């Protein structure tokens, strides 16, 4: 090697090192390390938090800092500067330790479906005991857990323990500790065991009920939008309401879907209920800001009918009947508000518009894209791409940004076109012409399907009925 060559290569290597360092500075935020040791009786947890750089303040959204015990700088003095949900740390603190009591969920937030914590299982929220520094984009918290009991957490598993990154903090994440049933759905790509709190006799039925809509959602993009989602089902006992009276998505320190289910109902009853298809469909989208709830609710309401039909729980005509009926009810109840205008109304006034205006827009965009691309692209394909590039997402999205993103993922401009046409236009997006072209005829509120219609093939392709 001649001298010049050596110089050249050393120089390049240095330059490369420098560039690598710069890149890693830009792309890697702080990594904090937490160690949690849960007491055998599930009453408390010992927390040791090591920060990668000094931290000034910690916060737990549902915490009470003054109730922490033995709060101190690691190996140092006690910390006395606590206020409500916050702990102000002495200058240059890089390690903190404390003991927190674990409170059942109903002690930290109201639960309209009753208290499921008992001597066998504790249901608590990490945001009541996990005091964290503010997490910016790229910051992460690695957590190691020591527990004698089974544990279910919303955090993503990293092989050795868990990792938390920033999340939209919609709703309140949950931890279960103790005895509960675990359901292995790894065959459909769920990396975390689903949880059932209820009698063992119902376990096989609950497992079958959950599996199908999860598989239907993963079929959309070829994989689950978040393979680490925590799925929780609680038996509410006999319900005089629907078989699955309530479900919701939590995006707090990870993603989770929670169901309240009447496990005594038959498998057929559970499968005909749309709640699971609706809630799992929410995972196809990032968290869209709450003022534009009509986007997440609308897309989930569209897919609840599409997926129920694709799974064979609704006939094709029932799927379209339910969509058409809901569009008509939303139109009848609409008091001159636009989808974006729902943010300025009381929820009970805007409810139908919130659930169905976005569903009508999803149908418009899906049909338009399938028509333009001759069936090569669809709402399914762009949401599959979205899941590959951008989910789960650490932040909440603006509605227009979401629609624009879908256009960059093969949406061919149809999403922004639909958004600009209807998001601020009063009333439900009209669907009469669209229905006629798809071969969805309505007479006396009853739908019948016309297979000779111009876009009948698209109608069948949406529901995957051939
Ligand atoms: Zn919903």
What descriptive keywords fit this protein?
37% helix, alpha+beta, binds zinc ion, five-stranded mixed β-sheet, 13 helices, seven-stranded mixed β-sheet, 466 residues, disordered N terminus, globular
Plain-language structure description:
This protein is α+β, with helices and mostly antiparallel strands and 466 residues long. 37% of the residues lie in helices and 20% in strands. The protein has helices spanning 3-27, 105-108, 203-221, 267-272, 275-282, 293-310, 316-333, 347-372, 379-390, 399-411, 414-422, 432-438, 456-463; strands at 31-38, 44-50, 57-59, 69-73, 82-83, 86-88, 95-101, 121-124, 140-146, 150-152, 156-157, 162-164, 175-178, 181-183, 194-197, 230-235, 246-251, 255-261, 440-443, 446-449. The strands form five sheets. Strands 4-7-2-1-9-12-11 form a seven-stranded mixed sheet, with no helix packed on it. A five-stranded mixed sheet has the order 14-15-16-18-17, covered by helices on one side. Residues 1-26 have low confidence and may be disordered. The structure holds zinc ion. The site of zinc ion has 4 residues, from helix 5 and helix 6.
